[in-house]
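User: Can you recover a sequence for this backbone? Please restate the input before giving your answer.

Assistant: Of course. Working from this structure:
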């Protein structure tokens, strides 16, 4: 999924399938209840009525479709380069320094147009020092999206918990659901 590094592979598969004019059958599963990722070292409570992309890395869920809203939980190793920036993470970085790296990566993406940062502040994320970003952007078709991203650096990894939705109608509709998922986020171990 690696949204921080670039276009998510799941969305890429969807786009390729649509471009070829065929139906894409991705491995989506209904959600609801506890979810734990041993590989990514976190757990959350997933909302009922949403669908989860079955993948080994990251967690991607949507209720009405990826182009309307999604929640993404991703893990990026500190030593892994990001797709759109030359800035890097370092163990022990302060949350606001991590937020600046993430913002530069988002702003440098060719698919993010007219980026407007609405909020950038420190917060607790899963009991760890982190940050909260709220921003809007347009896609190449001119559709405006709003995102809330909570991030933290824990050991050798960056964790991002992001909610992105079409700003009109969908963002407000599912913000409370995102906040419930965010509140339930727990790290299994710090590596």
């Amino acid at each position: 999924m690696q949204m921080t590094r670039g276009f998510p592979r799941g969305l890429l598969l969807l786009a390729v399938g649509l471009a070829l004019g065929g139906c894409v059958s991705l491995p989506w599963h209904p959600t609801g209840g506890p979810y734990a990722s041993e590989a990514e070292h976190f757990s959350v409570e997933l909302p009922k009525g949403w669908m989860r992309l079955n993948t080994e890395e990251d967690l991607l869920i949507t209720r009405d479709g990826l182009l309307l809203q999604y929640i993404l939980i991703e893990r990026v190793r500190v030593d892994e380069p990001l797709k759109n920036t030359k800035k890097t993470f370092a163990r022990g970085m302060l949350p606001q320094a991590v937020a600046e790296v993430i913002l530069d990566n988002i702003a440098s993406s060719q698919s993010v147009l007219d980026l407007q940062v609405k909020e950038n502040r420190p917060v607790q994320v899963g009991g760890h020092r982190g940050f909260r970003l709220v921003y809007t952007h347009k896609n190449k078709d001119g559709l405006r999206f709003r995102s809330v991203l909570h991030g933290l650096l824990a050991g050798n990894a960056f964790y991002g918990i992001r909610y992105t939705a079409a700003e009109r109608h969908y963002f407000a509709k599912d913000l409370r659901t995102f906040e419930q998922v965010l509140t339930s986020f727990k790290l299994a171990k710090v590596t």
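That completes the design. Residues 12-22 have pLDDT under 50 and may be disordered.
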